[in-house]
Design a protein that fits this description.
- This protein is of the alpha+beta class.
- The chain has one domain.
- The chain contains six helices and four strands; from the N terminus they run αβαβαβααβα.
- The protein has a four-stranded antiparallel beta sheet, covered by helices on one side.
- The radius of gyration is 19 Å and the shape is globular.
Length: 191
């Protein structure tokens, strides 16, 4: 098989330059800051009283979940480790909860992620009241009703040229947040 590798390299270079051009026309600006006490999302019904806190955006969002109660962080992590051990013994796609990767970092940032469609559902996944198949924090499933506070910071990703921002570009930007904040849970974007 004959492949024109020089042409492939040239096309790749043009593709990367085009991405850089698109990124140069993007602004990231604060969208919202949401605070939750753990008692506000013990279950789906309880959270329904507080869902108004989560606004809707038509733009892609990059979000950060931070624990405001750093004194109890070690206890929270201990609960996670216990739950994770038991969860691993369960059957995948049946009764196992798909938990975010545990990075064992030393920070108060629990998670960095992005949403291009339904931010509210994504936050419900992380709080633990929505689904078990999506990889998320699923906090209320393993926090043992511990009392703590969370801050969720969301940033809008806006194109100055009004172009639709492709998912992989949002992931490139998310990676920069992730690298800077080094969260306890989750994985770096798969790019």
């Amino acid at each position: 098989m004959k492949i024109d590798s020089e042409h492939i390299v040239k096309q790749s270079e043009e593709f990367a330059l085009n991405i850089a051009k698109k990124i140069s026309k993007i602004t990231i600006r604060p969208f919202c800051e949401i605070s939750f006490h753990s008692s506000e999302y013990r279950d789906r019904e309880t959270l329904s009283n507080f869902l108004h806190k989560i606004p809707k955006s038509d733009n892609p969002l990059i979000y950060i979940i931070q624990i405001k109660s750093p004194k109890i962080l070690s206890t929270l992590i201990e609960y996670f480790e216990d739950y994770q051990s038991a969860n691993k013994l369960k059957v995948k796609n049946k009764d196992r909860v798909n938990l975010s990767r545990y990075n064992k970092t030393s920070t108060d940032i629990l998670y960095v992620g992005s949403s291009t469609t339904d931010f509210k559902t994504r936050i419900k996944n992380h709080l633990g009241t929505e689904g078990t198949r999506v990889y998320s924090l699923h906090l209320c499933k393993w926090d043992n009703c511990l009392e703590y506070d969370l801050n969720i910071f969301a940033y809008e990703v806006i194109s100055e040229s009004n172009e639709i921002i492709e998912r992989f570009i949002v992931e490139i930007l998310e990676q920069q947040f992730w690298d800077k904040l080094n969260p306890i849970f989750g994985k770096r974007s798969g790019l």
